[in-house]
Amino acid sequence: MGEHEPNYIFFQADQFEYRAQDGHDSLNWDVQGWVGGDYEKLWLKTKGAKRIGGKVEDTEAQLLYSRLLTDFFDVQAGVRYDPEPNPRRGYAVLGVQGLAPYYFETDAALFLSNKGDLSARLSAEYELLLTQRLILQPAMEMNLSAHNVRELGVGAGVSDIELGMRLRYEIKREFAPYIGVNWQQKLGQTRSMARNNGEKTDIPSLVAGIRFWF
């Protein structure tokens, strides 16, 4: 950290929600936080899903060093570890995160696994203020892979896309319950692999959750 730069701590649960999805309900989370200043930060990010009445099916954690690249973007590098699903994987991470034109919050990253598999992820979200407290938040996430990774059920190309729309009410800035809809779609070779394994490729869901930060 810079010699005279004060350090701060920030934590945000952007998604902490129940997803009702045709008998396969789940608890999902997307949480991140950092410690640092304006120029350098240490980030911790985690996201995943746990089946209601079942086990954790999908989870990951990232530990990243972040450095200010421009006034609106940070470059990030570090590691990612996926305890689930099996087989477990570790990754090197390189990405950028920040505020794109027209106030889109974006996060783009490349992942190189310990098996040599290269993949990428792009996510973006936007906040539309209907009132000072009522906010509509559309969001998108897309995953891509340079290789077929059959043990993880991932095909080369665009593997999946997730779209969401959440309406939240900020009881106060740091605490906001929300409702919404979410849609996950597997694509290309990933969709073919899922069908061959008897898995769903199109997963719509209703969501209800809490967004909070401090």
Q: What spatial order of strands do you see in the largest sheet?
A: 1-2-3-4-5-6-7-8-10-11-12-13
Describe the main β-sheet briefly.
Answer: 12 strands, antiparallel, barrel
Contiguous runs where pLDDT drops below 50 for at least 5 residues: none
The CATH class designation is: Mainly Beta
Query: Averaged pLDDT, please?
Result: 95
Order of helices and strands: EEEEEEEEEEEEHE
Helix content: under 10%
- Looking at CATH, the homologous superfamily is monomeric porin ompg
Number of strand elements: 13
CATH architecture heading: Beta Barrel
Radius of gyration: 18 Å
How much of the residues is beta strand, in percent? over 45%
Structural class: mainly beta
Work out the helix count. Answer: 1
The separation of the N and C termini measures 21 Å
How many discrete domains?
1
What does this structure look like?
The chain is globular. The chain has one domain (8-213): Beta Barrel (Porin), CATH 2.40.160.40. It is built from one helix and 13 strands, in the order ββββββββββββαβ. A twelve-stranded antiparallel beta barrel has the order 1-2-3-4-5-6-7-8-10-11-12-13. The model has no long low-confidence stretch (mean pLDDT 95). A hairpin with a 3-residue loop joins β6 and β7. The two termini are 21 Å apart. The chain has 214 residues and is mainly beta.
